[in-house]
Specification:
single chain, 416 residues, alpha/beta, Urease, subunit C, domain 1, TIM Barrel, 2 domains, eight-stranded mixed sheet, 16 helices, 36% helix, 22% strand, binds zinc ion
């Protein structure tokens, strides 16, 4: 790969994603951003690619997915949450158990291609099926210009006996901890379905174990009222308080039913949130109040969750989320367009501890870029580039997507 420079674009540069008109981005042979500047590109001996009329945005990081269930699109649409998603009886889990790896892999490849076309450079997936489940996803993604952070989970559920869970007493077995080590070796970390998977002692063990391995740890939290109630019945505490007291994960997914006090507790403990508004809306659960989480001081990222009921399209997710929260608050001013865009770029990079190389257009970071054509019928005339992305743009407006300096979507850009 030789170095090149994209010229004449509106670049959403730096940590504030502030639009810089008539700007250029230079990409070096290693696929990194060598420099960003405004005005005429004055260098020589570098291929100049015409990016005039475009917005250059950092590629998107999808904070929460289950990419394996793309073969079940709209299955369960209109059905209650528990009948679709709760293991082991939920129809999603039943379908996974009786579907061959060949079928899963083929559909998974299509889902990843779609995510790339939607401008995604990295996604965080909760993968069931123990270590083999993780390796299946890693294998399919290995050939694709998109990076999975796969957080595997125990192969069998529940990981502790029902009597232990009901009494909130008892430790996790040595074999279970050994299974976690294997899962982490295969992927990027470990996930629980939720805090009710384990006793308080088990949560503390998993927290220590995963941290000692230097891997990511996350789980679903405050996802539904019955789940929350079960936690309180067994332990006297909600799952939010239990994860702060015992587990200390890198982030908590959903929090749709977290109270304001719990949001403050999570903010004080520096535990960020990943919210999935479209999936919780379509399944009739509710809307995660990520606006209140931001106001409480939490770092928030947005994910698209299960492909079964939501397309893995980060822009579609923030467009829905932005509108719904404005409607609920009866206030069009918060969160700002920049706040929304940060939730699929800068914030997830920080939550995943990869902000040194991802999430923004800054010198030295990976050239993971989305080149948006602002001259389409949909986007022209362009008055506010960030609001245009958050409020209107779709993947059909994308002219090109780059992953580590390699164009992975769209027609080749014209040489100037
Ligand atoms: Zn999930």
């Amino acid at each position: 790969m030789s170095d090149f420079v994209l010229t004449g674009a509106t670049v959403l540069a730096g940590q504030n994603l502030s639009p810089q008109e008539n700007s250029w981005v230079k990409v070096n042979q290693q696929g990194r951003i060598a420099d960003v500047g405004t005005g005429h590109w004055g260098g020589s001996n570098t291929t100049q690619l015409d990016a005039s009329g475009t917005i250059i945005c950092p590629a998107f990081l999808n904070g929460h997915t289950h990419v394996i269930d793309g073969f079940l699109k709209e299955v369960g649409f209109g059905m209650p949450y528990w009948d679709v998603f709760m293991p082991p009886e939920g129809l999603r889990h039943q379908a996974l158990a009786r579907t061959s790896n060949e079928v899963l892999k083929e559909q998974l490849g299509r889902t990843l291609d779609q995510m790339i076309a939607c401008g995604t450079s990295l996604f965080v997936d909760f993968r069931e099926g123990g270590r083999p489940g993780v390796s299946l996803l890693e294998e399919v993604a290995a050939d694709k210009p998109i990076q999975p952070f796969t957080l595997g989970r125990f192969a069998a559920y529940p990981p502790q006996p029902a009597e232990s869970l009901n009494a909130n007493a008892g430790a996790l077995s040595h074999e279970a901890l050994h299974e976690i080590s294997g899962i982490v070796e295969e992927g990027a970390g470990f996930s629980l379905i939720g805090a009710n998977d384990l006793t308080d002692e088990g949560l503390a063990q998993v927290g220590h174990h995963v941290r000692a391995l230097g891997a990511l740890l996350a789980l679903h939290v405050a996802e539904s009222p019955p789940y929350r109630q079960l936690s309180i019945e067994r332990t006297g505490q909600s799952d939010v308080h239990r994860i702060v007291d015992h587990l200390m994960p890198d982030f908590a997914v959903h929090l749709t039913f977290a109270t304001p006090d719990e949001m403050t507790r999570l903010a004080d403990a520096s535990i960020p949130a990943v919210c999935c508004p479209r999936n919780h809306a379509v399944i009739g659960l509710g809307i995660p109040r990520f606006d209140l989480m931001l106001e409480a001081g939490m770092t928030v990222a947005i994910g698209t969750d299960n492909v079964i009921l939501s397309s893995p399209d980060p822009l579609a997710e923030i467009q829905f989320a932005s509108r719904v929260i404005r409607a609920i608050r009866k206030d069009p001013s918060f969160p700002s367009a920049t706040d929304m865009l940060k939730m699929i770029t800068i914030n997830p990079a920080r939550i995943l501890h990869v902000e040194h190389e991802r999430g923004s257009i800054d010198k030295g970071k990976r050239a993971d870029l989305v080149i948006v054509d602002a001259t389409t019928h949909n986007l022209a005339p362009l008055n506010d580039p960030v609001a245009a992305l958050v409020n209107r743009a779709t993947a059909a407006d994308f002219k090109a997507v780059f992953n580590e300096g390699v164009q992975v979507c769209g027609q080749p850009l014209e040489v100037v």
